[in-house]
Design brief:
This protein has 332 residues and is an alpha+beta fold. The chain has helices spanning 7-18, 37-47, 68-78, 93-103, 108-118, 128-132, 141-158, 161-164, 196-204, 216-228, 301-331; strands at residues 21-24, 31-32, 66-67, 84-87, 178-180, 183-192, 249-250, 253-259, 263-268, 274-285, 288-299. The chain has a 7-stranded antiparallel β-sheet with strand order 5-6-11-10-9-8-7. Strands 1-4 form a two-stranded parallel sheet. β8 and β9 form a beta hairpin. α1 (7-18) packs across α3 and α9 (196-204) packs across α11.
């Protein structure tokens, strides 16, 4: 099944994201017919309308019959990663499962059971699903992976970290923040004795001539480095010192979501080995307001992971200082 959070999808994702070169046993070329989670749900809902009677087994699958190698290559292509798959004649399920335990979040025992299953072809051999559910046209491999990645983006864009995380003002997850699926999240909060409008005011004015409130020389240096590698740098500034709207450029960010006195979400447009977002959210609480600042990073392969963990001490310094200064300005 292809969908964010499914065991098979997370296994493929972990292997492709972390390993530029993969030594692949013969089972990687086993045929499968992966089905998108949306199509699986459509079949289950349609099955409710069938006449009750004797139980039956219906084989369902996606539109394409592919190998597990094809799955990895398609995922890599959509993520913009170059990967090399090197076939080897012998790699036992036990050795494969131990390797998965080292390189992916899948436990070795679970990986072994999974591999024992994927050694056998899993393709649709009868057309009963087509006859019983003629209105359902399962999507192919490319579209299924596109939908899985798009659904993740939508879920993350809608996430309210003030609901998902503690408001104690600490960074969850230890060094590097919190790992959520493939993404890395650094979130922290502070309480201020101010209304939500006053707490949001410095957030609304951030960037451009107002700067980023802390270590502005580091922000300018980051912009200069971005220019050197062909990025936009910080020369764009912002359209208006007070007003923001979705779609506005803000230095090397783009406004992705804006709710006055409540939420600002920025998508990075600098050159990065991955995708990044910076979000601010203000909520009313007893005695004032809580300001939450969240940095999200979707690393692209091993280079993205090395980048995030390598610069994390600097990010920690800047993010802490920036939130502290925003709170101070809100209190004033």
């Amino acid at each position: 099944m292809l969908g964010s959070g499914s065991l098979s999808f997370e296994l493929i994702r972990s292997l492709v994201e972390r390993l530029p070169v993969m030594v692949c046993p013969r089972w990687v070329e086993t045929k499968a017919q992966p089905i998108a989670i949306e199509d699986l749900v459509a079949y289950l809902l349609a099955a409710l309308d069938l006449d009750p009677g004797e139980g039956r087994t219906v084989e369902i699958g996606g539109a394409d019959q592919v190998t597990y190698g094809d799955l990895m290559r398609e995922y890599a292509a959509q993520r913009g990663l170059r990967r090399w798959l090197i076939p080897v004649p012998v790699l036992t399920p036990r050795l494969s499962s131990l390797w998965l335990g080292l390189t992916t979040p899948v436990y070795a025992r679970v990986g072994r059971k999974l591999i024992e299953g994927v050694r056998n072809p899993t393709v649709v051999r009868d057309d009963s699903a087509r006859r019983l559910f003629p209105s359902i046209a399962p999507m192919g491999l490319k579209r299924a992976i596109e939908r899985a990645l798009a659904n993740e983006d939508e879920e993350f864009a809608a996430t309210r970290w003030s609901d998902a995380l503690s408001s104690a003002g600490t960074t969850p997850g230890g060094y590097g923040g919190l790992r959520v699926g493939a993404r890395l999240v650094d979130s922290r909060a502070v309480k201020v004795a101010a209304t939500t409008a006053r707490a949001f005011a410095p957030i609304r004015r951030i960037g451009g001539r107002s700067g980023w409130y802390y270590a502005n020389f580091l922000w300018r240096l980051r912009g200069f480095v971005d220019l050197l590698v062909g990025g936009v740098g910080v020369r764009r500034g912002r359209r208006h010192p007070e007003l923001l709207a979705v779609g506005d450029a803000l230095d090397f960010w783009r406004v992705e979501a804006f709710e006055p006195d409540r939420r600002l979400r920025l998508a990075a447009e600098m050159k990065l080995p991955g995708r990044a977002w910076l979000e601010f959210e203000v909520r009313e609480c007893e005695g004032g307001a809580t300001i939450r600042q969240t940095a999200e990073f979707d690393p692209s392969g091993l280079a993205g992971l090395l980048y995030w963990y390598g610069v994390y001490p600097l990010h920690l310094l800047v993010f802490r200082g920036m939130l502290r200064e925003i709170a101070a300005r809100a209190a004033r």
